[in-house]
Amino acid sequence: MLDRLTGSIIVVAVAAAVGAVALSAERTAAQSQSLKTPWGEPDLQGIWTVETDTPFQRSPKYATQEFFTEAQRAEFDRERATLRGRDTRGDRGTERDVAGAYNNVFGALKRTGTRTSMVVDPPDGRIPPLTPQAQRVAAEDRDFRLAMMRATQTCKLNQPGCAGGKFDPTPTPRRNEIPAIYNVSRMNRHDRPEDGALADRCLTPGLPEFGAGNGGGSFRRIVQTPGGIAIAYDVGQGQGWQRSIVMNGSPHLPPNIRQWFGDSRGHWEGDTLVVDVTNFSPKTEYRGSRENMHLIERWRRTSPTTLEYRATIDDPTVWTRPWTVLQEFTRQSEEENRIYYEPRCVEGNEGFPAMMKAARQEDREFAEGKGPDPITKDNASGFAEPDPLQQ
C-alpha cells in the first residue's frame, strides 16, 4: 500500500513538474512574441543602463574564471565601500591636499557584477596585444605627456599620475610642441583649447561607449520607427549625444566622409539588431584606435527588462586580432524618468574658458616674477583614488 502511494505521489510530482516547464515555455514564447513593435520588429525601446560594475579586463588573479563567486563579490563590495575617492587628502602643503576638484559626493560606485571581465573574447578576458605600430604611437604620446608632468609634485612624490615618469625640477623644453596625434585626453597645460580633454571641451569620446562618467555609468534611450532607430546617450557630466542607425540597406558613406560617431548601418538577424559602424573621424579615439576602427554591434532583448549588447572591435593597425565586449542592461522606469532633457555640458561651457583665462593669468604672473612656472603644477592627473575592481 505504501509503495503504491509513494509511486502515485512521484507520478503526480513529475506531471506537475512537466506541466510547470510547459507553462514556463509558453510564457517565455508569449513574452518573446509580445516584445515586438506594432510593425513587427523586435522591440528594443526603453531607457537602459548597467546596474552593476564589472572589470573591463580580467585580472590575471582570476585567470580562466569567467564569473566571480558570491564571496568574491561581497569582498569587493566591502573593500570598495571604504574608498574615499577624491575625498582622500594628501600630505599637508602638497597639491593633492588642496586640488581634489570634485569630492566624493559627485562620484558613485555600484555593486560588483557577476562577470570577471567585460571582455568576453579572447576567452582570457584580456584585450589583445597592440601591434608594433600602435605600441610606438602610444609610447611617443605617453612620453610627451610625462614630459609635461616631470617638474610637478606628482612626479616628485612618485604618485600614480606620474606612473612611468621621472621627476626633474627643470620644466620640459617640449611645452610648445604640438602633439603628433589629435589630443583627446587631459595634459598638463592649457595653452590652446585642444590641450583639454574631450570632456573638458564638452565633446564626447563617442563609440564604443561602455560606461563613461563619474562612477555613475551611462544611460541610453532607444527609439524605433518603421524606417530607423535612434539612440540617445546620457554620459559623463552632460557630454550626451545622439546617433541614428540607417536601416534601409544602403551602403556606407564614401571613405573620405568621416564622422564623430562613425557611420552606422543596421539590419536584423532574427531577434538581434546588428549594426556595422565605420568612417570614424581621426579626431576621435578608442584605446588608440581612430579612423581605422571597425565596430560590429549586436543588440538583443533577453527579457522584458533586460537587453544584451555585444560589441566587436577591430582595427588591424592597433590590435593583433578583433575582440568583443559584453554588457547586460536593465530597463529603467519610464514613469520615474519621464522628464528627460537633452544633456547640456554647462560645466564645460562655463568652466573651460575660465581654465584658459586662469592659465593666461598664471603665465603673466610667472613672467613678472610673481608666481611659479605653471607647468610645475599638476593640472592633469585629478588625484582620483583607483578602484580596485578595475586594477
Description:
The longest helix has 33 residues, at 2-34. A hairpin with a 2-residue loop joins β8 (294-303) and β9 (306-314). Residues 1-32 have low confidence and may be disordered. With 391 residues, this protein is of the alpha+beta class. It is built from six helices and ten strands, in the order αβααβααββββββββα. The protein starts with a helix and ends in a 24-residue tail after the last helix. Strands 1, 2, 3, 4, 5, 6, 7, 8, 9 and 10 form a ten-stranded antiparallel beta sheet that branches.
- Anisotropy-based shape: globular
Q: Output mean pLDDT.
A: 85
Structural class: alpha+beta
The SSE order reads HEHHEHHEEEEEEEEH
User: What is the end-to-end distance?
Assistant: 65 Å
In helices, the fraction of residues equals: 10-25%
Number of strands: 10
User: How many helices in DSSP terms?
Assistant: 6
User: Which segments are poorly predicted (pLDDT under 50) over 5 or more consecutive residues?
Assistant: 1-32
Radius of gyration (CA) equals: 25 Å
Largest sheet: 10 strands, antiparallel
The share of residues in extended strands comes to 15-25%
Helix-strand layout with pairing:
Elements: H1 2-34, E1 46-49, H2 70-81, H3 95-98, E2 119-121, H4 132-149, H5 153-156, E3 219-225, E4 228-234, E5 241-246, E6 263-269, E7 272-278, E8 294-303, E9 306-314, E10 323-331, H6 346-367
Antiparallel strand pairs: 1-3, 1-10, 2-10, 3-4, 4-5, 6-7, 7-8, 8-9, 9-10
